[in-house]
Amino acid sequence: MEMSAADGGLGRSAHRQRSGTVKRKRWGGLRQQWKLLGLFEIDEQHEFYSLTCMMKEGLAAASQSTIDNAPRNELSDEDYRLEDPQIHKDFTMETFAGPVFSLLRGALGVSEQEYQQSLSSGSCYLQFISNSKSKADFFLTNDKRFFLKTQNKREIKFLLSNLKIYVEHLKRFPHSLLVKFLGVHRIKIPHRRKKYFIVMQSVFYPDDRINARYDIKGCEVSRWTEPVPEGSHIIVVLKDLNFEGQYISLERQRAWLLQQVEIDTHFLRRLNVLDYSLLLAHQPLHHDERHQSLSFASLIMRAKKSVNPGSSPIHPGISAVPGEVPEDGSTLLLSETDDNYFRQSQVGVASSGGSLQTCPEHAGPGSDTAELPEFKAQNRRLLPNLKNPLHVIDGPEQRYFIGIIDIFTVYSFRKRLEHWWKRLRHPGRSFSTVSPQAYCVRLCHWVQDHTK
């Protein structure tokens, strides 16, 4: 029986309809998968779709401006106060202290091109569903490398007013665990409230093998999160009480971690802040990761990168991650100076199990090793050859991701009142709202008590 033209049209229409249904089911399944993981893909139906499109467009233009007009290597006071507005069709986006953050990104090994590609790619941002009490919105780039977080005006003002101190801290302690801020922006839409947001490097990157995440504040009140059933793929960030009975097992690198947490929390105490969190995640090491045999050339490269004064943030001409080793495994041509450098610095590596904390007592003037006492004072370590080396520490069995985030809560008069109210409500129990001095000491004690 021959099919009429009308029947043929109906057949093609039905085929297109079935095809569309399959695509919708496929995308619906993907969205459902994100939801199960605690992430939402921000597609056209999402409430934040319009905002994230503006973010993408604005960040693409801002990073292109930096690519076209590379900032100077030397920063001025004006660079810290700079506000660069760019007008778009439906909004204006202002970039604060652009040259400062550009040099910070370069010091972390993030080129402007890859920064632009990650933040403004055609792929949707992901909304991260946080159990944080703050009213901030959290977004992740699709590759999960960068976090974008909305902030209020007070928090942005606090960050910008202390930006120079923050940069100086990273210069003095290049292997700091503090969150790495990569950009501060404001979107202005006619007849609507201004929207401030920051861009940060994700502590949990890459996260494809992470099997547990924690947000640690060193106290007990409201510090329990109901864990997901065993075997579930849902992403839940657990808290202090969930970690009880467990340890961060680092062995020889434990001393480095204790000292760095103390250094960073004392810096935050100077800023008079509290309520920050120690982010912690872990994943099991593969067999070959537990028993790595470093080549002589790679060890030299890692040692030189880890102790090179030029690997400090905001240092002229530096664009490599401290401690990063080239992935191509290229052979290094070692000069006599390099070989001598390695033999001297090897003392520190051997004695600290990968933490460059011990220095040769005798170093000739003008030699590389003459600077090693400074490296010890900076509490540097031999960083891993990984994508996120500043926040990754390997123990004997586990790989740990560690960073300090949420550093905007000032110990104001309101917080002092909250402290006294909580003392009455939770007698004899530890809670988050205490003085910056007490908060600093308590978190250091928590790390000391939960590491081995």
How are the SSEs ordered, and which strands pair?
Elements (H helix, E strand, L loop, with lengths): L4 H32 L2 E3 L7 H20 L8 H5 L1 E5 L4 E5 L1 H10 L4 H8 L6 E3 L9 E3 L5 E6 L1 H9 L1 H10 L8 E8 L6 E7 L10 E5 L20 E3 H4 L10 H17 L2 E2 L2 E8 L2 H4 L5 H12 L28 H17 L19 H6 L14 E3 L3 E8 L3 E2 L2 H13 L10 H14 L3
Parallel strand pairs: 9-10
Antiparallel strand pairs: 1-4, 2-3, 3-7, 4-5, 5-6, 6-8, 7-8, 9-12, 11-15, 12-14, 13-14
Helix pairs in contact: 2-5, 9-15, 11-12
Write a concise synopsis of the structure shown.
The protein has helices at about 5-35, 50-70, 75-80, 100-105, 110-120, 155-160, 165-170, 240-245, 255-270, 285-290, 295-305, 335-350, 370-375, 415-425, 435-450; strands at about 40, 85, 90-95, 125-130, 140, 145-150, 180-190, 195-200, 210-215, 235-240, 275, 275-285, 390-395, 400-405, 410. The protein is of the alpha+beta class and about 450 residues long. The strands form three sheets. An eight-stranded antiparallel beta sheet has the order 1-4-5-6-8-7-3-2.
Q: Compute the number of helices.
A: 15
Strand order of the largest sheet: 1-4-5-6-8-7-3-2
Helix coverage percent: 40-55%
Strand content: 15-25%
Form type: globular
Distance between the termini: 81 Å
Low-confidence stretches: 1-6, 22-36, 309-370
Beta strands, count:
15
Biggest sheet character: 8 strands, antiparallel
Overall description:
- Helices cover 40% and strands 16% of the residues.
- It contains 15 helices and 15 strands.
- It has an 8-stranded antiparallel sheet with strand order 1-4-5-6-8-7-3-2.
- Strand 7 (181-188) and strand 8 form a beta hairpin.
